[in-house]
Write a structure and sequence with these properties.
single chain; 134 residues; alpha/beta; Rossmann fold; four-stranded mixed beta sheet; two-stranded parallel ribbon; globular
């Protein structure tokens, strides 16, 4: 896989905004990798902010996992994430997503929350799939 998808992109699958929901679906259907942190963040938002039932949450997560392989959280990702946070000034959770993408060998990270176009470690481009350039 050459693309990593952040939770903030996948959560738009549930959006009332059809343009963003369709774009999120396009990104997911094109294939990409996620990790367990992404699954945890999605589950938390669906439960706490969207008040979805566990059955609904499980159905959405199963759909995402059927299309996007989920990589485990590792100490290597944690260590790299701390370095990324320090070097690029990202918050810890965003840096852990970046680190997971780097460790997985991805070339693109789709995220709405980080600087569109940022190049991390000469390897990973941050892309906002909802911007004109994404």
């Amino acid at each position: 896989m050459h693309e990593f998808i952040d939770s903030n992109v996948l959560l738009y699958l549930l959006s009332a905004d059809p343009a963003k929901a369709n774009r999120a679906e396009e990104v997911m259907q094109a294939g990409g990798v996620i990790n367990v942190q992404v699954l945890n963040e999605i589950a938390n938002v669906m439960r706490c902010k969207l008040s979805m039932s566990w059955r609904e949450i499980n159905d959405v997560l199963a759909l995402i996992r059927a299309i996007c392989p989920a990589e485990p959280l590792t100490a290597e990702v944690h260590d790299r994430g701390r370095l990324v946070a320090e070097r690029y000034g990202l918050n810890v959770y965003d840096a852990m997503i970046v680190a997971a993408a780097l460790v997985t060998g991805c070339k693109t990270l789709y995220s709405e929350d980080m600087q569109d176009g940022l190049l991390i470690d000469g390897q990973l481009h941050i892309r906002n799939p909802f911007s004109a350039t994404g």
